[in-house]
Every structure is written in C-alpha cells, then in structure tokens.
Amino acid sequence: MKSQSFFAYGEPQDYQCNSVLNTISIIRKYHPQVEEEVVLADRDLRACALKSAKKGDYTNAITLLSQLINRHPQNAVDYNNRGLIYFQSGDRHKAFCDYNMALQLNPKLASAYNNRANYYAACGELEAAIADYDQALDLNPSYVRGWINRAITLRELGEYAEAIENLEVALLFGQLESHILAERGRTYHLWGDWNCAIADYQRALITINAEKQQTLYNTSNLHLQVKSWLNELMGFSN
User: What does CATH list as the number for 107-175?
Assistant: First the structure.
C-alpha cells in the first residue's frame, strides 16, 4: 500500500503582517497616484506576498516577491519564498530554479534545502530528496519540518522503522504535534501495526481539537485527512 503525503511542509521565512492591508487602504485613499510598491517597506511586501499566497492568490504573491528580488537580488530568502509559492501554484520548474538560486546565494539556508527536497519528492526522486533533507538537518538539527518530511520520504521508500524514529525525534521539539502524530499513525498503518496506528490517529484528533481551540494552526484539512485514514483502517479491521 503506497503512502500519501498530505501536508505541504514547505518553509517560508516568517514575517509579521504589521497591518499591511490597512497601509494599502490608506495609500489608495489619500495617495491614489502613488504606486503601492513604492511606499511599502520590504517587510510589508513580504508580509503581503505571504498573505496573498495563503489566500491562494499566487499571481499577486509572486509579483510582490519578484519586486523584492528586483530590489535585493542577493537576498536568498526572497528566492526561497518565491520558489515555495511557485511550487504551491504548480510551477515546479520555476520553483526548482528559485531554490537553486537561494542556495547559490546562501548555502546554509536550511529551509531552501527542505523546500528543494519537497520538489524532488514530488518528482519521485526520493534519494535526492533524502540527501537534501539531510543537508537541512545538518544545518539545523531542530528543524521539525525537515524531520517530518524526511520521515514521509522514508515511508515512501518502505523504510518504516527509520521513518518512525524520525517522527519521534520531531516530537521532542514540541512543534506541529498533531501533524507528527498523524504521520506516525499513517506510517504504523502502512507498516501493518494497526493498534499503534489507531492510537496515533486518535491522539492526533485530540491534539487537533486542542490546537484549534488555542488557534495555533489551521488544521481543518489535517482533521479531514486523519478521519479519512482512521475510517479506512477501521474498515479494514472490521
């Protein structure tokens, strides 16, 4: 039974929005003749780009990040972020080119190795993906997304025991717990250890509900996926 990755564990650089939308509204109201990109600071453009990407407006997000790259062509983070958005929009080739440029500019950017590894994994180049995840984790051993993604790829390769070990390492850092439990449950599920799988799926659902109440993450898609996997397993076991 082939495993299916369900969460895009890409890694953008995080930026605070800083009332970007209010800033844009003021610009439009009082200075309609001035182009927004002239007024907005770099951090605001980045925040607005990532906000657009989260809404699915990839074209606007890419346009804003391209403006930033024109301003600062040596900034590896902007290439990495634009690559991630290209990847999310389905343009894998441009994503790959941006990840390579980011790493050329900053060979120690762990998130770019993680994102490029996701590209390799999506293309079925699993050994190349593992190599890039290893690079990311060598640079940042506490990089939770790297551990999760490496585990998913190992699962695709049928290396279930090592995948479980990677997920248990990821749990130590206290981040993305619901995602880790869900992926560990899926790994046990595909490995044939259904009791452990059911326990992890149930723990993941409890954790998702707790995270939802604390508004830590948007986990609605994860909740649906875990329920689907649990129903699939319960159907097999009945």
Answer: 1.25.40.10
